[in-house]
Amino acid sequence: MRDLPIPLLRTFVVVAETLNLTVAAGRLHRAPSTISMQLSRLEGLVSTDLLERGQYGVRLTPAGDLLRSHAQLLLNQHDRILGSFLNAEIGGKVRFGTHDQYATRSLPPLLETFVLNYPEVRLEVQCDHRPQQLVSLLQQGKLDLALVEMPLLSTGGTHLGRDELVWVRSPLHSTHMREPLPLAVFVDGCYHRDMALQVLEQWQKPCRIAFTSQSRAGVLAAVRAGIGVGVIPRSTLEEGLVVEDSLPPLPKTDTTLFVAEQVTEASFRLAQIIRESPQFSCAGQDMARSRLPIE
């Protein structure tokens, strides 16, 4: 009976997620040639092709698609078992606040890694579209960590990456040409909403709030339906949306991680996972452990 090495399965799962050897290599901090060799070795062990390589990337074969689900289950169980031994002494509660755009896109694999590796920790996640509200809760001692989108070069926290806000609309609707401009945005207090209204006022372009929601999914559904134009970070652009450059330019932002002054070891470990992840370290800023200044 052959054994499937865990490192090979980890590589395969990342490739299956990205369907791009170069992107997977960057995420795994390895050379693309190393990734390719690991995949070839895994295919040799299972005696079948797992990937079809082409000019524009790779795609899973039926056997590869089957292995992906099995491999993820095996890796989760492996990490849970190992974590119960290596991190059994780390427990307590981690109260984490973040925006819906992170909670539904970049954070799930990181939070999954944390939960599997620290099974004795109770993770509590609070989503809020108002960054200042989350920072305020952290200052009040009601949150341990907060991952939020802040104005460019704002003070406090650790800046993990830089982004920019863009107008988005459905390619099937000329929503951006209506007068006044209809907007699909979060409810009051959202930074995206505030910047959109401020920029449009500066440009003296009439607008109206056509749709509001407390979730990113709700806002983008309205945008796709042609109800209004939305505002999102460029890095979170999804299929079925197009950037509308004819409207006034929106500001750049910083993805910022705030850590309370006094936190448990578990909270520090989660902060470390977020800081070191490729999703949030693309800007190459200082990853040193930073603390929110006490007012």
TrEMBL record:
Assigned keywords, A-Z: DNA-binding, Transcription, Transcription regulation
Signal sequence coordinates: none
Oxidoreductase recorded as keyword: no
Organism encoding this protein: Oceanimonas baumannii
InterPro entries: LTTR (IPR050176), LysR_HTH_N (IPR000847), LysR_subst-bd (IPR005119), WH-like_DNA-bd_sf (IPR036388), WH_DNA-bd_sf (IPR036390)
PROSITE patterns on file: HTH_LYSR (PS50931)
Family under the similarity heading: Belongs to the LysR transcriptional regulatory family.
SUPFAM superfamilies: Periplasmic binding protein-like II (SSF53850), Winged helix' DNA-binding domain (SSF46785)
Superkingdom of the organism of origin: Bacteria
Pfam families, per database record: HTH_1, LysR_substrate
Gene Ontology MF term list: DNA binding; DNA-binding transcription factor activity
Residue ranges occupied by any HTH lysR-type domain in the UniProt entry: 4-61
Protein name: DNA-binding transcriptional LysR family regulator
